[in-house]
Amino acid sequence: MICYIFLAGLAVLFYVFVIHIYAKLWLLKLKHGKDVEISYFPLFGDYFYLTKSFKKYGDAMEIFKQRYQKNPNIKFVASNILNKVFLFIHDPEYYKSVLVNHQSYTKVEILYHPKLSSTSILFGEPDKVKQQRNLLGEAFTFEKLKQRTPIINEVLLQKLEKEDKTDVLDFLTKTSSEIIIKTFFCKELQDIIVQGNDITTEMIDLITQLGNMQMNDLYVSVKLALLGRKAFGFFPSKKEKLLDARIDRLIDGTLMPIIKNKIANYKANQNQDFLDLYVNAYLNQKPNEPKITELELCQLFVSIVSAGTDTSSHQIAITLYYLGIDRKAQEEIRQELINVVGDEVDIQPQHLSKLVLLNAFIYEAFRVKSTVIQPLTRIAKESHYIQNLKIEKGTYVAALTTAPSWSSKYFNDPNKFDYKRWLSQRPIQEDNGYVFVPFSAGGRNCIGQHMAMMTMKIMIGQILRKYDVIVDQTVQVTFPLVLFIQYSPKNLVKLEKRKL
Ligand code: HEM
């Protein structure tokens, strides 16, 4: 009897996780023919090939790139995650619709935590996000950010003098986080120590561990895929409990007292950092607007620092890697810096638009190796259509914004790293405005993109003025995906002080 029940259970599981989902994918194939490629793998779907790709080629994205290059006309890949359909949209005309109609989706819970991000700009409800983007948008315009270039120069130059740069990525992460905190937040938040770590080291480490656990721990990832946000607090594993305790210490023990103090002592028309803007809105809430809570103020700090730090530092590190590979380009860009910036200590706003070679190189590094491979995957809230493709409620949808960069349909000789392509009149063929969007696009694009470009130019520019970027090309390099694409080994890129 027990044996029959067991077999019946197995049959149900086989139906749900294999036959049913496989049939759904083949129905899509029948309907969309050459527009779609099927990629089924039990439970893990296309994500299985990330590991396979890394093992086979030393590059987590290589299999996906080769697949698209073999079949450049596919509009999307239909895959699965557990028993759900997962669509990886490659065609910019199709993913444009996902990015523009962002209200039709929620974000998957990777990097989500109720205490860390439930009301944050990254994961809040649409009305909340709209309110936050309105409040913060003004501070992120290029005109406002221009005033912050002295801080970026100062923090970087000091750190270049004093800090160890053996692990360049680690150096860049510490520098980027200090720049963001000093640019947008008050003194009280700059010098906090949590558990023996400075606040940004603690926050970045927490968020990296959270993301890794949600993606790579089988128990946690299956729980999330089945229960969504209800998974939090549901039979937590030991690892989850430890992380929850650290998050409590960060929010309740550290940030909340500072926020409460800031609210209690708020004086209007003072320096106006992000918290001042927000405290002002908190104190002057209108009944018809989404409520602003004290937790939201804590989450604002965490989300801005975490969204801006690792993204910038990984992309700068990979750009330095390519500069180390292409020493001729490095010299050309250095010469441009000498011509444009001369003997001035700071790289200033008026220099930025004249650094065209540096800008082109940064773009090409984004095109060839965007360390953020796609915006977070979305889940369809309701059934709807993208052109003739029906997206059922509950479908996972990833706008694979890196895909067009692999295709000769959009870029001439796409596998070649050729930064000068960006100097031509038309670097992108067949551009619908969504082909090259390293900062995503539409209503949920990167609010910090001007800050990111400005920081990247100043940081890379100052490094090139003072250091030679060296990559030992006899060392075998690999590109794992650890939330971000990064190079390995960590000490591959070296900065050697130039003799002036
Ligand atoms: C090279 C650096 C950066 C890259 C490649 C990057 C990329 C992105 C991408 C692709 C998104 C869309 C995410 C999604 O829809 O799931 C995003 C969103 C966001 N980014 Fe950035 N980002 C960078 C730097 C920054 C900086 C410096 C800040 C702030 C100081 C920042 C703040 C944000 C915020 C708050 C969001 C969420 C916006 C929303 O959901 O409405 N980012 N970023």
Question: What brief labels describe this structure?
Answer:
6-stranded mixed sheet; two-stranded antiparallel ribbon; binds protoporphyrin IX containing FE; globular; 500 residues; 10% strand; alpha+beta; Cytochrome p450
Overview in brief:
The chain has 500 residues and is α+β, with helices and mostly antiparallel strands. It contains 19 helices and 14 strands.
The residue ranges in which pLDDT falls below 50 over 5 or more consecutive positions are: none
CATH class: Mainly Alpha
Class computed from helices, strands and strand pairing: alpha+beta
Distance between the termini: 84 Å
Q: By CATH's scheme, which homologous superfamily applies? A: Cytochrome P450
Domain count:
1
What helical percentage do the residues reach? Answer: 40-55%
Q: Please, what is the average pLDDT? A: 93
CATH fold-level label: Cytochrome p450
Strand content: 5-15%
| Strands in their spatial order, largest beta sheet | 1-2-3-10-7-4
The ligands found in this model are: protoporphyrin IX containing FE
Task: Return the CATH architecture.
Answer: Orthogonal Bundle
Organism: Paramecium sonneborni
Protein name: Cytochrome P450
Keywords: Heme, Iron, Membrane, Metal-binding, Monooxygenase, Oxidoreductase, Transmembrane, Transmembrane helix
Family: Belongs to the cytochrome P450 family.
